[in-house]
Amino acid sequence: xxxxxxxxxxxxxxxxxxxxxxxxxxxxxxxxxxxxxxxxxxxxxxxxxxxxxxxxxxxxxxxxxxxxxxxxxxxxxxxxxxxxxxxxxxxxxxxxxxxxxxxxxxxxxxxxxxxxxxxxxxxxxxxxxxxxxxxxxxxxxxxxxxxxxxxxxxxxxxxxxxxxxxxxxxxxxxxxxxxxxxxxxxxxxxxxxxxxxxxxxxxxxxxxxxxxxxxxxxxxxxxxxxxxxxxxxxxxxxxxxxxxxxxxxxxxxxxxxxxxxxxxxxxxxxxxxxxxxxxxxxxxxxxxxxxxxxxxxxxxxxxxxxxxxxxxxxxxxxxxxxxxxxxxxxxxxxxxxxxxxxxxxxxxxxxxxxxxxxxxxxxxxxxxx
Length: 369
Prior knowledge:
Blueprint: H1 2-12, H2 22-39, E1 42-43, H3 44-49, H4 55-73, E2 84-86, E3 94-100, E4 110-112, E5 116-118, E6 121-123, H5 126-138, E7 142-148, E8 161-162, H6 170-185, H7 192-213, H8 217-248, H9 254-276, H10 286-289, H11 295-303, H12 308-317, H13 322-332, H14 340-349
Parallel strand pairs: 2-8
Antiparallel strand pairs: 1-2, 3-6, 3-7, 4-5
Helix pairs in contact: 1-2, 4-6, 6-7, 6-8, 7-8, 7-12, 8-9, 12-13
């Protein structure tokens, strides 16, 4: 209850600033949603004991509990994360807005307390999300609006398991638990691609170890295959974005920009269906191949797939033990911030290059938190 009171005081304490500040209204709405999520949270034990809970839901909740326990066993900072459950009463938790200029891979970046610079913005209010997206469209920018089923408060609050995150896939649900708890375990300020790509490793490799510890070799292999697919997709997007950046560097005019993007979209489809698609073990390339070029969308998908091969190399260097790999990476990242995270990982692995930074939009909006 003390946490709820503190959260309420924090977000209601803005007073009359609500009337004059878009940013304060945004933060207040986010605070109200977090308070409601925490207020409605029920201990998982009560969910399991409730006669109204279906057998199917009981099985999924049990999987979450077992995954969380395993996360603690291997040294992840689980805290009280996923010890409770909240039904948010809708099928979409929040909408996430990303934006980028059409002539470069240069995302709009927002600045927040604690976490630093982030190349996206989440909205619990769909209307507010669509208004934000439209502001960028009016400026002629690429915009990407996507739903998100879960988020992490990095251990500041006891994040409940949310109804929107209850995907009916054992591997993905377990990986989600490990992924979100991994953010509590290691988080580098202003280094979103590093944090999310690390959490991909921490999610799928822990899921593999978890299912193997339960004697389920089939699900363990599926988790390993999903991670292998993420690495392949990471290679594909890296090559695709590299081609785009070379093209954008020529500073094409409006007509050349449109035709060039169309040509590169065809090239990307050929590459995905030819060089990369056959290497995928669990994903189909049909929908991916039909996507038109959208710089904001590319920023979004690459956030989770930046130098995944480096993280896999780090994992293999530590004898394929996810607990050892995560513990060593925490030590390596002590005091790191921003692009320094990938620089340290690169240097430790002896890689030739470092991850390109996410450049902010050349014309940021004047009112950003």
